[in-house]
Amino acid sequence: MLSLDQIVERLTEIVGARFVSTNPIDKINYQHTLAYGAYKALPDVIVRVESDHEGRHVVPEILRFANEHKIPIVAKGGVGMGISSPLRGGILLDMLGMDKIIEVNPTLHYAIAEGGASVYSIHYALRRHGLMLPNYGTYGSAVVIGAMVSKGGIGYGMTRYGWIADLVIGLEVVLADGSIVRLGALANQETEFGPFQKWVHIPDLLGLFTLSAGSLGIISKVCLRAIEGRREWLHDYCYTFRRDQLENVQRAMLQLVKGEIVYDIHFTDRWQYYWPMEEGLYNKAAIPDDAWFFLKTIIWAREQDELSYKEKRMRSIYQQQGGHEVEEIVQKAMGEKPQQHGLHGWPDYHIMGPDGWCSAIVRHAGMFAVTSKMYPISFLKEMYDLDEAAKRECGLWNPEHSPQHDSYVTRDLAVKEEYFVFYNPYDDDDLARLRRWMGKVQEFSNRRGVVWTAPTLSTKGSYPYERLGNAYDWVKQIKQLLDPNNILNPGALS
Fold this sequence. Notes:
- Helix content is about 30%, strand content about 20%.
- By secondary structure, it is an alpha+beta fold.
């Protein structure tokens, strides 16, 4: 067993002294997740990797060293929800220096980027060619594509196009022994045709590395399918419903997704607007007093005839279910004008910035934690009611904790549900309330069969895995085959 000094010495030889740190402040900063203070795991050493202008990098060498000496290693991209917390110490691998957009192919509509490239930069590169990813990840430039793929990243456009992982047609992955494998379209990269589709003449292996949280390999390159896209093709709407109309909300969502009418539906509740309204960012008089649920909706239409048909169908469905159209949210929380601080007018639902909804809430309520999971739309009312009851019992159903829901409606007729609680990370009592609530969410969610996306699954007990039966046993065998020394994010898949 090597000492920490010996580990640092060897890593310094590989990447240089400037890219290795054991500084306690650096460890705390790198450990930081969206739920500051909720996860205490720290790395022993931080290593940053960078690629040169030809894409060469030392990730294989680092992994060979870690594997030889059985040192845990976790890849980290931007600020996340706990997926990259080093549960068993070891090396935390900063991937942000591998951030190059290698190719945009405007003819065949794909992009190749390094694993540490931000989704923001990928979009920027694509838009120079009139293209876009139909799933736009949130939180601006903080989100990196390798993390989005390895933990089921989400974004606006899920209602029509699915998860970021659904857009992946090729991967390059560094395995625990330092070997590099190219999968899907990237397996064809060195041919004259190049990477044009994910299906090659062997079984599809891309899924091994999606939702794996870096437990089977570290993603070094991603090939993504893009589509033609223009901002003027996206049209914004918002409908509100009362608290007693949640079953109507379910029915409206199901009809809109089944009919492939809308590009995106984003489901939120009034807690998201409480502090922004108190600060005067929204005009209270323009929002119905009894509006509790907000369905921020985008229609994708290239021409007026398409827009007229989809708009008519959408309005008919929302109106039949008792929805009320609210222009105030469209004008100030959606669309082009609110994105002056964002991605050139593309949807981000005005999260950050001096007058974004998240910034306003943080100013009053502190740090936030999120539990993130998937379940059928038809269970929305039951799950919302259960969460409200749990928050009330834990003393969190109040403006000071802004216990909002901020959720995506997906093409799988599911809800990618995000339960928020804002809290004081320096108050032990508040942290205790937060953890008690998270335990209650875990209990009622596991029992019903949700698919967790965050925080890291190891915090959710063994049941989510064990209920998968021999499929989980098979994954563990693959893990043993690819990573016999269990160095890759140990604890995240078991």
